[in-house]
Task: structure prediction
Amino acid sequence: MKRYALVLSIFAVILLASGCRTVVVYDRPAPPPEQVEVISVRPCPAAVWVTGHWTWKGGRYGRYVWVPGHWRR
Result:
């Protein structure tokens, strides 16, 4: 997240130096802590567990939504 903020800051400085009058930077809050998931029985030997994660939904005024883990073949 710090790297994201650094990139946005550098971008803002470049825009200001190029003569742009207004720069608005919206920084998202950090995602919530990971959720504890119960991993079900493997459906087949070729299946691999994909861990759940937070994803941002809703644009500028959005929120984080948990995408549950699942088995993938």
About this structure: The longest strand covers residues 53-57. The chain has two domains: 1-30, 35-73. The two ends are 31 Å apart (CA to CA). The CA atoms of residues 33 and 54 lie 9 Å apart.
